[in-house]
Design a protein that fits this description.
- Two copies of one chain form a homodimer.
- The first copy, chain A, is of the alpha/beta class and 428 residues long.
- The longest helix of chain A has 21 residues.
- In chain A, 35% of the residues lie in helices and 26% in strands.
- Chain A contains 13 helices and 17 strands.
- Chain A folds into three domains: 127 residues, Rossmann fold; 163 residues, Dihydrodipicolinate Reductase, domain 2 (2-Layer Sandwich); 81 residues, Alpha-Beta Plaits (2-Layer Sandwich), CATH 3.30.70.
- Chains A and B meet through helix 1, helix 5, strand 10, strand 11 and helix 11 of A and helix 1, helix 5, strand 10, strand 11 and helix 11 of B.
- Strand 11 of chain A pairs antiparallel with strand 11 of chain B.
């Protein structure tokens, strides 16, 4: 049995769970991979923090970078997070020193994945990041192995559990975004200090970028793309969606349109009888469309120490089986830069909510403006608020060009009868 | 680049699709695995059958067993089917002759998988059978790799597309079992000559047996277990289920109950708002419960040339990557015989439908008998059929012991007011 030394850097909720998981599964792993694994190095910001296990001081390293050059360490597991700074250095140095790396860091991989994978390939070590996308759902491995030779045309799904929890909870409790966000923070579903990266869609977008490059065998796209979060969704929108037999979900979507890459993350209105609209709470789900497999669906818990350590352990086993794989499935040199689809050309049905003064002529001002931008109305609902002399006007449009709808919405800014920038949600 | 010769035995719908798939993906596969693959041998019952491609006579073998000893062949793909006879010989001989084997044959693997995997391990070759379970859904690979170190406690799902199509179609068209079956046969969803193995649940059970042994690291169970198909489901049952906000699905279920294996396949009544009840038509779905991952769901097309060749190709890539793996995840010698749970001890709520003569006292005869067997009634519906002087009595019971409900149902045989053996469907 080959002796393998593991170094874990970062001992928060996930690192701690993984530490115990590795110890408890040591025998099982030995059986499956014919290796004798040992945790020979750990590092954390605060050695004295209260943890559910006792830290062995003998294997504790104050400076995490020391682990990356320690000859006893064969595999480094980076669990600090953030795209740059110390985590990047740890991964970079480990790979340069010919150590395999496992990371759950989606920000890092979506930003520096191309660079890091080229070092890994050069040095013939693994760089694994299953836990970066979809938590416990083994979606990267499924793309690289289970659906290995499929021609993937589209991937979409719910990739952020925080947002999905908030939207589900807003629907079931009819409570406001702010109140539900607080609840999510109390439950540990949203970061207490700075939940922004979850709420504004950046987290989901990092995952979409990783999925794109794996699915389409391209370099990670650096272009700006359509990115909207859920911060401006009000319970009013959820109510109205409900009446229309629709539900609001934050979707990440990536597809090839005429061989051009079209990536985006934004709230979508989905019919209630679809699969994706029934994925609730913190669950994640990914739908893949491929040839010859057809449509595949993967669903599971997207975050938390349990699912994440399941993914990290699958990376560990993949390395222990002794197979050096290209981190993105094919050699870096064969991965071309993607050609980017011009999102302005996209057509979508829109849900528009206008908050207006209840005065004659306002509706006609709106409809005239929409007509000017070639946006035609499929459905219109006006909800009066007599007390405040206001009204909500909800318009569902036929398919309209993204460029026009963007310009059109902006044009309403100067209209004093319209009380705030209209809310726009795309129909999926 | 290493040269690899492939032999395909069986050129029906699936074999033909795979043949073309391998040719068209040759370059892509070379890139991913650094190999140069060629189809060097094929065999089929009838060389002259009309196919969508021209058979190269130079590589055609009349006797498929000749392929298993041909030195040019490194990988044999068996696509004939059936548990015994020629397909078993092909797989057995190929493994003995140190050739890797890929098969889609669930009957073969569920019956002889233990024996065949021991030959594969001894000769250090792969035996892969992803396509045997769940068609395009890479569920075996997910168990072996993506969820590799999870402790799985339960797997259940819709594993037979034919049955799921028939039940979905009976619900949406309100047509009879026989008519819908004919339709399924015309569409190619059910075998024209002998659809029995699909309809009686045997096909799903073979898959459950394979899943059990992979999930729980045990030998394949040889014991008889609870097996019921969908042949006795009438549109009346589907109607009533609908009124109760339930749906009938044929589920395969395997779990460990106090470390004892409990496998079964039978129709289940599932609430309409659950995930599994909304998996319709020919779709398959598998739900896995594991620690630490939580609940994972995989869904996709369960049959047909496209999904099946996707699975076969993933097996091919796994072999080409050059990693010899244990066919069932761990060494055969470490896989113990499972201890079997006594299914008679199981408790279930039941749906019972009695067809009775519309005479006074019949209902009290039924309820008295149920009470005798400790089966208590949660709900009762009587639907009269005045014309024929009959009635249907539907009873939903509280949780009852399997042994008692079985005995109780049998006891009604002698009651002449009850026109046929009552229909029993378990609630899930």
């Amino acid at each position: 049995m080959k002796k393998i030394g593991i170094g874990i850097i970062g001992l928060g909720n996930i690192g701690s769970r993984l530490y115990k998981e590795i110890l408890s599964k040591k025998k099982d792993i030995g059986l499956k991979t014919n290796t004798n694994i040992n945790i020979v190095a750990i590092s954390a910001k605060n050695i004295n923090k209260k943890r559910s296990f006792k830290i062995k001081r003998k294997i504790f390293f104050k400076r995490p970078l020391d682990i990356t050059k320690n000859p006893k360490v064969n595999i480094v597991i980076e669990l600090i997070g953030k795209a740059d700074g110390i985590s990047k250095k740890i991964v970079e140095n480990s790979l340069i020193n010919k150590k395999h790396v496992i990371t759950a860091n989606k920000a890092l991989i979506s930003k520096h994945g191309d660079y890091l994978s080229s070092i890994a390939e050069k040095n013939k070590v693994n760089l694994e990041f299953e836990a970066a996308v979809g938590g416990g759902i083994p979606v990267l491995r499924t793309l690289k192995e289970g659906l290995a030779t499929n021609k993937i045309s589209k991937i979409y799904g719910i990739l952020n559990g925080t947002c999905n929890y908030i939207l589900s909870e807003m629907e079931s409790t009819k409570d406001s975004f702010q109140n539900v966000l607080k609840k999510a923070q109390n439950l540990g579903y949203a970061e207490p200090s700075n939940p922004k990266l979850d709420l504004n869609g950046s987290d989901a977008l990092a995952k979409i970028k990783i999925l794109s490059s794996l699915a389409f065998n391209k370099k990670i796209s650096k272009s700006k793309c359509m990115l909207e979060g859920i911060e401006s969704i009000e319970s009013k929108d959820i109510d109205i969606a409900n009446q229309l037999n629709l539900r609001i979900k934050l979707l990440g979507i990536t597809e090839l349109v005429n061989n051009k890459l079209f990536e985006r993350v934004h709230p979508c209105l989905v019919p209630k009888n679809t699969y994706i609209s029934n994925v609730n709470d913190v669950m994640n789900a990914v739908i893949l469309e491929g040839e010859p497999v057809g449509e595949s669906v993967l669903q599971g818990e997207g975050a938390g120490p349990g699912p994440t350590s399941s993914a990290l352990m699958s990376d560990l086993l993949s390395i222990l089986r002794g197979n050096i794989k290209f981190p993105f499935g094919i050699p870096s040199s064969k991965r071309k830069k993607p050609v980017i689809y011009d999102q302005n050309l996209n057509f979508n049905s829109l849900y528009l909510r206008f908050e207006v003064k209840d005065k004659p002529g306002v509706l006609s001002q709106i409809t005239r403006q929409l007509a000017k931008y070639k946006i035609s109305i499929a459905r219109l609902i006006q909800i009066p608020d007599h007390k405040r002399k206001r009204a909500s006007i909800i318009i569902i449009t036929h398919k309209s060009k993204e460029l026009y709808s963007f310009k059109c919405l902006k044009s309403f800014k100067s209209n004093k009868n319209i009380l705030k920038l209209p809310t726009l949600i795309r129909l999926f």
